[in-house]
Design a protein that fits this description.
There is one protein chain. By secondary structure, the protein is of the alpha+beta class. About 50% of the residues lie in helices and about 15% in strands. It has eight helices and six strands, in the order αααββαβαααβββα. A three-stranded antiparallel beta sheet has the order 1-2-3, with helices on one face. The radius of gyration is 18 Å and the shape is globular. It starts with a helix and ends in an 11-residue tail after the last helix. The C terminus is likely disordered.
Length: about 240
């Protein structure tokens, strides 16, 4: 996989929490190799891959605004991203579509179901079969689009669309585990946040003695979901 364009993307687009994201990328690379036998070496490439697939996921959800006033996508049990509508006047000024992200509590595993399998495509096929339990049509569409996006924008050629969701979710898991782990490093720390490449901020905070994950969409992400043309209200 070519890394030049992806490294350039990281340098140009990641303004905050660079050290955090590079460490996350390093851990994610270890998990990608362990679980789907995928060898990535540059953590900047890993974060760029994650960001581009996240963009594809968001685009697929935003397209639903043409059909539904409210929509939520469960991303393979890891988290939910979607939008709601409201008649609140302040929300109308933002196009009436309010995006949200929420951590899912359902258990999951990235570990291969066949420990003797070492072919990346087959491991990804197994991962998808195990983890895609709902909304399979839109997730399959995202995988196809994601494969093209990585090729067109980062010059990263993947052998199969089957790679896309396992890569994304394993990297996402590394992000979640990282912010949780930072709380454990300092008993006086009650909250830790990372701005993920300008896409959103993820945070972990201690609630009743346990780490809880929350998401804050970035301004650019909120604007992506903004759609004055089809909003139910208007600021006139």
């Amino acid at each position: 996989m070519a890394e030049t364009q992806s490294t350039k993307w990281f340098e140009e687009n990641v303004a905050e929490n660079r050290d955090d994201l590079i460490r996350i990328g390093e851990v994610a690379n270890e998990m990608l190799f362990k679980n789907i036998s995928l060898g990535l070496t540059n953590p900047m490439t890993t974060i760029a891959i994650y960001a581009k697939i996240f963009d594809v996921i968001c685009d697929a959800v935003v397209e639903k605004e043409e059909e539904y006033s409210d929509f939520a996508l469960n991303v393979a049990g890891r988290f939910t991203i979607g939008y709601t509508t409201t008649d609140n006047e302040d929300d109308e000024k933002a196009g009436n579509f309010m995006c949200f992200m929420a951590q899912n509590d359902e258990p999951y595993s990235d570990a291969p179901s066949d420990e003797n399998e070492d072919d990346t495509i087959q491991l990804c096929v197994q991962w998808n079969s195990t983890n895609i339990k709902t909304q399979s049509d839109i997730l399959k569409d995202i995988m196809a689009r994601g494969k093209k996006q990585l090729s067109d924008l980062l010059n990263i050629k993947t052998e199969s669309h089957e790679y896309i969701l396992p890569m994304f979710c394993i990297i996402h898991g590394a992000i979640v585990n990282y912010v949780k782990s930072k709380l454990g490093e300092d008993e006086n720390l009650s909250e830790y946040e990372v701005n993920v490449a300008g896409l959103y901020t993820i945070g972990a905070q201690v609630i009743e003695g346990n780490p809880s994950i929350y998401y804050v969409p970035s301004i650019s992400l909120k604007l992506k979901f903004k759609n004055d043309a089809i909003a139910t209200g208007s600021d006139e």
